[in-house]
Amino acid sequence: MGYIQEARENHVKKKVEEALRSKMKQKALKECNYYSAKYAECAAGRTISVVWQCRKHAKELNECLHQYTNDSVLEDMKKNYMLEQESKSLFPKETEMTG
């Protein structure tokens, strides 16, 4: 599949992409809650020293978040969104057809 064709197939409106990014970030924070709590626990009561004292926790949190917030994940979400939209247009709900 050519780059241009793939780009067209995965193109979504800006607002939809923003919503998908937001959903992606929410999922990442949920999935990485353990690491987030560990980092917050380490950072509590610290100011500048948080940089070196909590470096390990920050790295673990960032690695976890990156698993759920990268271009590949976003592209998959766009593809799923497009498939859902296509499915809705091909197979409208019965209530829409009879209502």
UniProtKB/TrEMBL annotation:
<keyword id="KW-0496">Mitochondrion</keyword>
<dbReference type="InterPro" id="IPR013892">
    <property type="entry name" value="Cyt_c_biogenesis_Cmc1-like"/>
</dbReference>
<dbReference type="Pfam" id="PF08583">
    <property type="entry name" value="Cmc1"/>
</dbReference>
<keyword id="KW-1015">Disulfide bond</keyword>
<protein>
    <recommendedName>
        <fullName>COX assembly mitochondrial protein</fullName>
    </recommendedName>
</protein>
<comment type="similarity">
    <text>Belongs to the CMC family.</text>
</comment>
<dbReference type="GO" id="GO:0005739">
    <property type="term" value="C:mitochondrion"/>
</dbReference>
